[in-house]
Write a structure and sequence with these properties.
globular, mainly alpha
Length: about 110
């Protein structure tokens, strides 16, 4: 459920404070995954939250000089399931593990 309009600014302020605190402490893929999860969980817009959060994720990867990740529209069920399980259980590790596995699978040619 999206936040009420008065909750959005404090939630986004907290998001950017978290990002600034962790941007040089976490591995790029972990930072990107958690930022994605945090932003999509805030759900500040009526539409486009998933697209914006995937852009944030890829911006972080790009900025840290890591290959970006594509989460194709077809077959996005496992992506949505991982996000939802993380949100319902309050455990970001669920989405983080899903994204790391997906990232390694997509970019194994870079990891050799």
């Amino acid at each position: 459920m999206p936040p009420s309009p008065v909750e959005v600014l404090p939630m986004l302020t907290e998001f950017f404070q978290w990002y600034n605190k962790h941007k040089n402490r976490l591995h790029a893929v972990e930072l990107a995954a958690i930022a994605h999860l945090k932003f999509v969980t805030i759900h500040p817009f009526g539409d486009g939250n998933g697209r914006i959060s995937r852009l944030i994720m890829n911006f972080i990867l790009y900025k840290k000089k890591y290959p970006m990740i594509d989460i194709p529209y077809l077959g996005r069920n496992s992506y949505h399931n991982a996000l939802e399980r993380s949100q319902v259980k309050g455990d970001g590790r669920i989405f983080l593990q899903w994204l790391i596995k997906r990232y390694i699978k997509e970019h194994k040619r870079y990891l050799r």
